[in-house]
Amino acid sequence: MKKLLAAALAVASVVTFMSCGGAKKAEGKVLNIYVWNDEFPSRFNDYYASKLPADVKVNFVQTANQDNAYQNKLDEVLLNQKNAAADDKVDIFLVEADYALKYVDTPYTLDVKKEIGLTDADLANQFKYTKDVMTDSKGVLKGVSWQACPAGFAYRRSYAKDVLGTDDPAEVQKALADWTKFDDVAAKAKAKGYFMVSGFDDSFRVFSDNVTTKWVNGNKITIDPMINRWIAQTKEYTDKGYNNKTSLWDGEWSKGMMADGNVFGYFGPAWFIDFCMPHDAGSAFGDWAFCKGPQGFSWGGTWICGASGSDNIELIKDIMYTLTCDKATMVKIAKEAGDFTNNEPAMKEVAASDYKNDFLGGQNHMAFFIDSAASIDKSFISAYDQGMNEKIQQSMMDYFNGKVTLDKAWDNFYIAVLEKYPNLTR
Questions:
Q1: pLDDT at 24
Q2: CA 123/CA 121 separation, integer angstroms
């Protein structure tokens, strides 16, 4: 891959960093944490900062994800880690599922067990897939997460009553239980003046998370049937007016969530509800509910990695333990922040409790996630996922809009990905 860190992998075997082995070293007084948004800083400040030693300064170094800026910055500082002054070294950095493998199989991430010190008992209640994502080719765990990200379908209660005669999550789920039923409701929603989904990309993660092949086999690009199913459905939804022809994260896409928006629903996990759906005065606050939807899937996730060369190993261990292993903290985060946290007993406790999510009209939606979280399979992720997922969505947009043929859209996809990954072939 055309990134600084990837270039260093060829010499990874001769790179040596200090770790927590041998004599115990004095802990540093500056903790540098690299992030791309406010999600982890908010969890850290709300659920860990009170435990910090008084003489430790925390620096959050935030670089936006856009145009690969965060990874480029991270690559730069990690490559300089060995020569950086102690107070300038990266201590913790965050990664997402789409590019986690890029960092997992390198010497830049610490072994969570042998070098940081968490035990199998500490990690026992975390959902298996969250550990699988961060396990390297030698079976070494390189990162942990406070959240699991099973996902479903968030829908407008008032629109469900209008279209289906009910807003009850169990009844709405019956109406959306498979893609044929979902398509039928899309037609009914259109007749009532609603878009079933906002745009081209809304259902992409449902399909892409259910593939049974990797994007790349050896050096050959492979197209899983689920990707073709997404393309076919999205073209149909565009032609029939079941979507609003928007793109993920753009302004028009977000407007559909507002009180005067006309989008029936959005696919997403717990973080989507908490961080992406507007909770202000102009939103449809309380007029939403949540169900599994036509097919189980997961989307995203944020993992905490300890950086090789850090002089804050004991502090990293305590942060990882408190925010990803401690059941009481996991319950608190779920109830207060709405995250589906990475602790199965904690989530079962919350699902069985009187917890209510005000944004979802008082629904306790956590029960929808538990079975999905336990069954998520990340066997087919690869280091190419982020680039491939971005390019297929970008390349198909002109096809959905009727500007190019499907064959031309595929040609544009291959041109884009082969430019990004010149080592691959069609």
A1: 53
A2: 5
Residue 318 neighbours by CB distance under 10 Å? 17
**Assigned token pair, 342:** 């990475």
The helices-and-strands tally (H runs, E runs) of the chain is 19, 10
367 CB-contact burial (10 Å; exposed 0-12 / middle 13-18 / buried 19+): middle
pLDDT (0 to 100) of residue 287: 97
Q: Can you state the percent helix, strand and coil of the chain, rounding each to 5?
A: 45, 15, 40
By three-state DSSP, how is residue 144 classified?
strand
Q: How far is CA 117 from CA 24, 48, 178, 246, 378, in A?
A: 13, 18, 44, 46, 25
DSSP 81-105: GGGS-GGGS--EEEEEGGGHHHHHT
Element (H, E) at 317: helix 313-324
Distances from the Cα of 219 to the Cα of 176, 421, 425, angstroms: 38, 10, 6
Task: For the chain, list residues with pLDDT below 50.
Answer: 1-23
Q: Token pair for residue 150? A: 């099973």
Q: Strands 150-156 and 288-291, how do they pair? A: antiparallel
User: For residues 210 and 122, what is the distance between their CA atoms, to the nearest angstrom?
Assistant: 30
Spatial separation of the C-alpha atoms in residues 152 and 292, rounded to whole Å: 4
Closest among 275, 325, 324 to 145, alpha carbons compared = 324
User: 3-class DSSP state for residue 109?
Assistant: strand
For residue 375, give both structure tokens: 């069954």
The pLDDT of residue 324 is 98
pLDDT tens-digit series, residues 250-307? 999 999 999 999 999 999 998 899 889 988 878 999 999 999 999 989 998 999 999 9
In the DSSP assignment, the letter for residue 106 is S
Q: Return the pLDDT at 376.
A: 85
